[in-house]
Amino acid sequence: MKAAYINRTGPPESIIYGDLPTVKPGPADCVVKVGAVAVNPIDTYVRGGLVPMPLTFPFVIGCDLAGTVVEVGAEVDRFKPGDRVWGSNQGLLGRRGTFSEFVTVDENWLYATPRNVADEQAAAVALVGITAHLGLVRDARLQKGESIFVNGGSGGVGSMVVQMAHALGARVIATAGSDARTDLCRMFGADIVINYKTSDVSAELKKVAPTGVNVWWETVREPNFEVAVANLAARGRMIVMAGRDARPPFPVGPFYVKGCSLHGFVMFNATPDEQRAAAEEMNDWVARGKLKANIDRILPLAEAAKAHRLQEENTIGKAGTLSGKIVLKP
Ligand SMILES: NC(=O)c1ccc[n+]([C@@H]2O[C@H](COP(=O)([O-])OP(=O)(O)OC[C@H]3O[C@@H](n4cnc5c(N)ncnc54)[C@H](OP(=O)(O)O)[C@@H]3O)[C@@H](O)[C@H]2O)c1
User: Fold this and answer.
1) What is the tens place of the pLDDT at every residue in 46-80?
2) Which of 162, 219, 296 to mutate to test the pocket of ligand 1 (most atoms within 8 A of CB)?
3) CA 82–ligand 1 middle distance (angstroms)
4) Most buried residue among 2, 69, 209, 329 by CB atoms closer than 10 A?
5) What is the pLDDT of residues 195-230, one digit of tens each?
6) How far is CA 112 from the centre of its chain?
7) CB distance 260 to 215 below 8 Å
8) What is the CB neighbour count within 10 angstroms for residue 175?
9) pTM, two decimal places
């Protein structure tokens, strides 16, 4: 089968697109014929060796997938051949990745794809959507009628947070870096969008949320806690989930006096049950059109190296040439 893989960690050009043997399913595995996969920043960190993971070479890259089950192991009881499924959390913690024509995935990491949802859409919401749901529902416990600020509302994770917060009945304030991207955030359900390149975000926030926001979702890799804490309401909750090397100053006094809390997490440490709970509500929203994939472009799987280069230039290099997900098709 064709696959995108590496024989050692390194730059995007380390990715080889070539033939690998298909893998036999273990008793709890499904073999999925892949319809689409999506790129995430974590894929580029693992490929580049920036986030150390146990890797067996040749290592197939990629976390997200959507496709059709073609074979199941003896103990599989959630799925049967012919079922359409999507999933994430592969290519991590010793698991093989998804960027290949066929993947072998433990059934606990797979979810049924709603009938009216294409593989491209399902793959594009996978890791980013589960991340957004874990942070909003499990950690921040966002309530109907509360307000949330999403710093980076047009990105992979941010666009999921905006839509889910809207679906949960919150008032959503987001930032984006261009007029086209502020429009995108509004389309996803943001009530107020601030262009972070042309406006003073803190000053604008003071106007639209004078007593602060209940939840602050930070997608930026170098959070500004001075601004965030100043704009959190009493008992506000802040989510941080990016920027492993970030060591910004933290205003302890204003934070604890207001009774705020700070929540950090990586989605791949969430249990299969936690991820399934997120995936099931996502499926409901996606099927009802309340949650839409934010796809920037669709490429052939053969262009995996180009896709990694583009993701890295944007997430790390802030090139501004990508807005949303890169989906690839075998
Ligand atoms: N902890 C976890 O489980 C987890 C899960 C997924 C992702 N992550 C991490 O979260 C980060 C975001 O991931 P992603 O997939 O959403 O990346 P992405 O699609 O590249 O999005 C990055 C976003 O950052 C925005 N941005 C850049 N500079 C900004 C600034 N100065 N102020 C406000 N917004 C700014 C961009 O806005 P414009 O395009 O509008 O300029 C874009 O929306 C990455 O570092 C990733 O590794 C962590």
Assistant:
1) 999 999 999 999 999 999 999 999 999 999 999 99
2) 219
3) 35
4) 69
5) 999 999 999 999 999 999 999 999 999 999 999 999
6) 18
7) no
8) 27
9) 0.98
